Amino acid sequence: MDERGRSLKNNNMEDDMDLKRGPWTAEEDCKLINYIATNGEGRWNSLSRCAGLQRTGKSCRLRWLNYLRPDVRRGNITLEEQLLILELHSRWGNRWSKIAQYLPGRTDNEIKNYWRTRVQKHAKQLKCDVNSQQFKDTMKYLWMPRLVERIQSASASAAALTNATTTGSAATSSCIIASNNQFMTYDYNNNSMGQQFGVMNNNDYITPENSSVALSPVSDLTDYYNAPNPNPEYHSGQVGNSYYPDQNLVGPQMLPDDYFDYSRLLDEDVPAMQEQSNLNWFENINGAASSSDSLWDIGENDEDFWFLQQQQQFNNNGNF
DNA sequence: AAACACTGCAACCGCCCCAGG
DNA sequence: TCCTGGGGCGGTTGCAGTGTT
């Protein structure tokens, strides 16, 4: 038993003597995988005993769900996933498992870790609470549009590459944007949030080969784009721009009750939000972005620098 | 090269809910 | 109705790897 395991608080001393804690070994992983392959999952306490594992049922369940499950996706959180996490978190807060449902292959633990390590770090840099309205607004009107920008940039690069090698490929003026359980397209001709969604061009694939930023394998994205559209009314009949967390549940029933119309919210809510919270930073930052592009033209993968800029602006103005 | 600091993430905990007896 | 065990969830911890001094 590892030292951390020994140090952990445990009220049940008998269990503490019998049960193993700490990092899993390859042998244990093998036992768990083989047992589940034969007998299926569930009844984790008895599963642990029957599989010959000296682990708690909870430990087995966690190991399986967060690590051993075949469909667990590993690697960097992509820009699209970041965007989706920010959006969903703004809606649901720390409902990690619920958020994870909309990111296939990602576990609630992974999303939670991403939030704590990345998002909270940025909040700290901005010297504001991660749950404050200020930081939420920063995410909504700065960070998320910036992610969209970066996705669009990568997408444009991909399209350019495609154009160079194929015929009939339209240049993109849109990119995907996350909204609840869907990826939508975002028309970037006007380079500002709150525009009407455009039509996702199926040529707008981003691949690890042609992208200059860390992105998911192309199969992931094509899955997003090629899934049928559950809400023709909303999307005016366009297809191929929606994403479903569970391909077995494709259909209108997948739309959550609190379906989030991103474009309408942005159009209508900004003035109300500004009035409600006496926001004036949005105009400032939006003006700065459109006049000098200083906020948007910074290097990719340099969020720290970007947030430093935000921090400096905050320090100068007392707001954004 | 060593010491220290930072970061990412696997793993654990306590709490809660729910189904079944 | 109450009790109990299983399972799920969000929060927390601490190790290992990496970067910095």
Automatic annotation (TrEMBL):
Residues 16-68, 69-123 form the HTH myb-type domain. One of its GO terms (molecular function) is sequence-specific DNA binding. Keywords: DNA-binding, Nucleus, Repeat, Transcription, Transcription regulation. Residues 16-68, 69-119 form the Myb-like domain. SUPFAM superfamilies: Homeodomain-like (SSF46689). GO terms for cellular component: nucleus. It holds the Pfam family Myb_DNA-binding. It is found in: Nucleus. This is Uncharacterized protein. It comes from Brassica campestris.
